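Weekly sync, protein design subgroup
Attendees: M.S., D.O., the rotation student, P.L. (late)

Item 1: inverse folding check
M.S. brought a backbone from last month's batch and wanted to see whether the design step gives back something sensible before we order anything. D.O. pointed out we never logged the input encoding, so this time it goes straight into the notes. C-alpha cells as presented (649 positions):
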C-alpha cells in the first residue's frame, strides 16, 4: 500500500529540509482521485467566509476551465487586492484529456483547503495535475526552487544497477531535451529498448511559460536527485510545481512515445551525455512529423553513421524527380522540419483523383484547393499553388517555415508538402465546415451558428492569436486575419489558416514597416493600410473586426445603402453610444442568447479596433477578458476609420 505524508511540519529527519522533499513508496498504482502529496505553506492563515476564501473560490471557478481549454493544459490566475490577493497556478500532464484536466483542478482546490485548512499557501499534486494557490506572488518568476515530491518503486530492476541506471539516464536526458527545446508545450515522453522483451518509459514536463534554458535547468536540478534515491529502482519520479520527470518499466502515459531510443550497449555503463532528437526515419511519411528518433552520441555514434549511409543509398536508389525551385531557409532545424513532411506526388494524385474538378473545394489568388483521402482514410485538403505565381512561391516558403513549427489546436495543421516535378503542394487537415465566412454571412446557414458556437469561435481565434504573438517560440504576425482565413472543423472549432503573408519577429522586435501593403481592406489596421507599419497590434485590430462581424453577422464593408450609412465599425459605434446595440445583433441567433456576454464581446471588439495601436489590448489580455466575469473592461474610444453620420438641419 502506498504511504503519503499528510500533515505539515512532520517531515522525516532523513529528508533534506532546504528542499522540503516529500518521499513516498509506491507498491500499487494510485487511484485517479488520490493526491500524490501536498505541501502547506507557513506564511499566514485566513478565516472562514473571508474575502481571501472568496477569492480562492473565484479561482476555483475559472482556472479549471482556463487550463483545460488551453492547448498546453496550463493556466495562471490572480484575484483580489492586498492583503486578500490570491495567486494560483494549475498544470495538467500533457497527455491528459481536457475533461480530466478540468475535473482534477477543481478537485485540487477543494482537497487543498481540506488538507491545509485555512492556510493561505497550499500546493497539491495528483497523477493528472498540480495546483498551487498562495498570497505570495510566486507567478512573477519561473524559478522553481520550492518543495519537491519524490516517489520511488520499492522494487529493484532485474538488470545490474549500473547498466540499468545508465539506460535510465540516457532516456531521461533525451526526454528532458525534447521537452525543453522541441515542444512548445514543454512536454515529452520517450521509450528505450532494454533487453530482448523489456522497455523503459520516461516522461518530462515543465510549465509552458518557461524558456527552454529555464526548463532544462529546472529538470536537471531534480534529475540530480536520482543517484541518491533511484539507483537500481525499477521506477521513480520527482515532481515540483513547474517541472517533473518520471520513468517506469511499463507504459504509464497516454498515446505513443514522442521519442524512441535504441538499446544502449552493455559495455557502456556510465551515464551518457545529453542527446539531440532527430526526425524519425522508416515510419510512414504521414507520421514522420509526429514521432522522433533520439540518438545518444556517446552510445550509438556508429549506428548514426550507418543510418546516414543507408539514407544516402536509399536516395540513390529512389527514382529521380524534378523538384520545384524553392529556396529553403538557412536554419538547419527548419530544413529538417520540412524534410520530414515531404509527400509523394503519386500519393496526392491518387488521393484527389488526379485533382479532379469534383474534388475542388475552392480557389484563391494563389491556386486551387482540393479535397483528398489518403490511403489511411484520413481526409485532407491539398492546396495546389499556381505554377506561374511568384506570390505563390513566397507564400509557400512562409507556410513551410512557419506552419511546420506551429502546433496549436486553433491553427491549421500542416500534414505534408510535395515539391515534385513542377508542383508546389501543401497538404492540410480537412475542415468539413469550410471557412467561417461561408456560414456566418450565408442567409440560411448562419442559423447553424448559435451563440454558444460563436463564442467558442471567438475564444478559439483569440487563443490561436495569443499563441502566435506571445506563447510560441516564434513571434508571428499573421497580417491577413479575416473570416475566410478562419476554418471550422466538424465541431466548429476554429483554425487560423493561410500564413502566406505572415512575418516572423525577433523576441524584442515590436513593429516593422513594408513598402508593399498586402492583406484585405476592411480588416487592415489604419497604421498598416496608410503607412505600411505592422505589429501584433495590427492583428489585434483584425481580430476586433472579426468579433464585431461574428456578433452582428454583418461584413465590414464601406458599401452604403438607404438603410445603412456607415461601415460596420461606424454602425457598431453609433449604436454603442446610443445604447441600442441589441438592434444590430444577428437575428439568426435565438432570443435565449446571453445578452451580457454578447455586449462584452462587442466592447472587446471595440477595444481592439481603436485607432492608436497602444490602446489596443494584447491577445493574452483579450483571452482573460473573454474568460472572466470579474474583470472590468475599459471604455473604448471611437474606432479607427469611423465615419460619422452627417446630419442636415
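Designed sequence read out in the meeting:
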Amino acid at each position: 500500500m502506498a504511504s503519503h505524508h499528510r500533515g505539515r511540519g512532520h517531515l522525516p529527519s532523513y529528508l533534506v529540509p532546504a528542499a522540503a522533499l516529500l518521499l513516498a513508496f509506491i507498491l500499487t498504482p494510485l487511484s485517479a482521485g488520490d493526491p500524490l502529496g501536498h505541501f502547506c505553506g507557513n506564511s499566514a492563515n485566513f478565516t472562514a467566509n473571508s474575502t481571501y476564501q472568496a477569492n480562492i473560490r473565484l479561482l476555483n471557478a475559472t482556472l479549471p476551465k482556463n487550463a483545460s481549454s488551453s492547448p498546453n493544459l496550463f493556466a495562471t490566475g490572480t484575484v483580489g487586492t492586498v492583503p486578500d490577493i490570491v495567486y494560483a497556478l494549475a498544470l495538467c500532464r500533457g497527455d491528459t484529456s481536457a475533461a480530466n484536466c478540468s475535473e482534477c483542478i477543481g478537485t485540487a482546490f477543494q482537497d487543498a483547503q481540506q488538507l491545509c485548512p485555512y492556510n493561505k499557501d497550499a500546493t497539491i499534486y495528483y497523477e493528472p495535475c498540480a495546483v498551487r494557490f498562495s498570497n505570495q506572488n510566486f507567478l512573477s518568476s519561473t524559478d522553481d526552487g520550492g518543495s519537491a515530491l519524490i516517489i520511488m518503486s520499492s522494487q529493484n530492476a532485474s538488470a545490474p544497477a549500473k547498466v540499468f541506471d545508465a539506460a535510465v539516464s540516457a532516456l531521461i536526458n533525451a526526454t528532458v531535451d525534447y521537452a525543453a527545446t522541441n515542444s512548445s508545450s514543454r512536454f515529452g515522453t520517450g521509450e528505450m529498448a532494454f533487453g530482448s522483451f523489456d522497455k523503459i518509459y520516461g516522461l518530462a514536463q515543465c510549465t509552458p511559460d518557461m524558456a527552454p534554458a529555464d526548463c532544462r535547468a529546472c529538470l536537471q536540478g531534480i534529475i540530480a536527485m536520482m543517484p541518491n534515491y533511484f539507483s537500481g529502482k525499477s521506477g521513480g519520479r520527482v515532481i515540483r510545481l513547474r517541472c517533473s520527470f518520471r520513468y517506469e518499466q511499463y507504459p504509464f502515459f497516454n498515446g505513443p512515445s514522442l521519442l524512441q531510443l535504441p538499446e544502449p550497449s552493455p559495455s557502456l555503463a556510465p551515464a551518457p551525455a545529453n542527446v539531440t532528437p532527430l526526425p524519425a526515419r522508416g515510419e510512414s511519411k504521414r507520421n514522420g512529423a509526429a514521432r522522433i528518433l533520439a540518438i545518444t552520441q556517446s552510445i550509438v555514434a556508429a549506428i548514426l553513421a550507418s543510418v546516414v549511409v543507408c539514407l544516402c543509398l536509399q536516395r540513390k536508389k529512389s527514382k529521380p524527380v524534378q523538384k520545384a525551385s524553392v529556396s529553403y531557409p538557412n536554419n538547419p532545424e527548419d530544413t529538417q522540419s520540412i524534410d520530414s513532411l515531404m509527400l509523394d506526388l503519386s500519393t496526392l494524385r491518387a488521393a484527389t483523383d488526379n485533382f479532379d474538378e469534383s474534388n475542388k473545394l475552392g480557389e484563391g489568388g494563389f491556386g486551387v484547393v482540393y479535397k483528398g483521402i489518403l490511403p489511411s482514410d484520413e481526409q485532407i485538403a491539398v492546396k495546389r499553388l499556381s505554377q506561374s505565381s511568384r506570390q505563390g512561391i513566397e507564400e509557400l516558403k512562409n507556410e513551410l517555415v512557419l506552419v511546420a513549427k506551429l502546433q496549436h489546436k486553433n491553427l491549421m495543421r500542416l500534414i505534408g508538402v510535395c515539391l515534385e516535378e513542377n508542383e508546389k503542394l501543401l497538404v492540410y487537415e480537412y475542415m468539413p465546415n469550410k471557412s467561417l465566412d461561408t456560414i456566418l454571412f450565408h442567409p440560411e446557414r448562419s442559423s447553424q451558428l448559435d451563440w454558444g458556437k460563436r463564442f467558442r469561435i471567438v475564444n478559439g481565434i483569440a487563443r490561436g492569436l495569443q499563441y502566435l504573438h506571445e506563447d510560441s517560440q516564434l513571434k508571428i504576425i499573421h497580417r491577413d486575419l479575416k473570416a475566410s482565413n478562419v476554418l471550422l472543423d466538424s465541431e466548429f472549432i476554429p483554425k487560423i489558416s493561410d500564413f502566406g503573408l505572415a512575418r516572423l519577429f525577433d523576441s524584442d522586435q515590436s513593429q516593422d514597416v513594408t513598402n508593399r501593403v498586402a492583406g484585405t481592406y476592411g480588416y487592415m489596421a489604419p497604421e498598416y493600410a496608410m503607412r505600411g507599419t505592422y505589429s501584433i497590434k495590427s492583428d489585434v485590430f483584425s481580430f476586433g473586426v472579426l468579433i464585431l462581424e461574428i456578433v452582428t453577422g454583418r461584413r465590414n464593408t464601406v458599401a452604403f445603402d438607404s438603410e445603412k450609412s456607415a461601415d460596420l465599425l461606424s454602425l457598431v459605434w453609433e449604436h454603442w453610444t446610443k445604447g441600442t446595440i441589441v438592434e444590430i445583433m444577428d437575428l439568426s441567433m435565438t432570443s435565449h442568447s446571453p445578452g451580457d456576454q454578447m455586449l462584452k464581446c462587442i466592447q472587446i471588439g471595440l477595444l481592439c479596433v481603436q485607432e492608436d495601436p497602444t490602446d489596443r489590448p494584447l491577445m493574452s489580455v483579450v483571452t482573460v477578458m473573454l474568460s472572466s466575469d470579474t474583470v472590468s473592461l475599459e471604455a473604448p474610444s471611437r474606432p479607427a476609420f469611423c465615419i460619422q453620420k452627417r446630419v442636415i438641419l
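Discussion: The chain is about 30% helix and 20% strand. Residues 332-429 form a domain with the Phosphorylase Kinase; domain 1 fold (CATH 3.30.200.20).
Action: P.L. to compare against the previous round before Friday.
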